[in-house]
Design goal:
Layout: H1 2-17, H2 21-24, H3 37-48, H4 54-61, H5 65-75
Helix pairs in contact: 3-4, 3-5
């Protein structure tokens, strides 16, 4: 049962990492288009280092640096 719950949690974080707009453009968190891609990348590096919101720490740790860059460019201020 513990393995199943862990698998579900990992899958959930992976899904959230690829669907930033789910929270950030849905009213639950700060809109990402108010930040530049560089600001998003810097903040994600902080999260990846374990600093800040525990939910975002887990999301950032589940993402590669190239995934973070791609998402920052996709959602950041144009």
């Amino acid at each position: 049962m513990k393995k199943l719950l862990a698998l579900i949690a990992v899958a959930g974080f992976a899904f959230a990492a690829q669907n930033c707009a789910m929270c950030h453009n849905g009213g639950m968190a700060k809109k990402l288009d108010t930040l530049t891609p560089a600001e998003i990348i810097a903040k994600m590096k902080e999260y990846k280092a374990g600093k800040g919101n525990p939910m975002m720490v887990n999301v950032a740790k589940a993402m590669s640096d190239s995934e973070i860059k791609a998402e920052a460019e996709k959602y950041g201020k144009k």
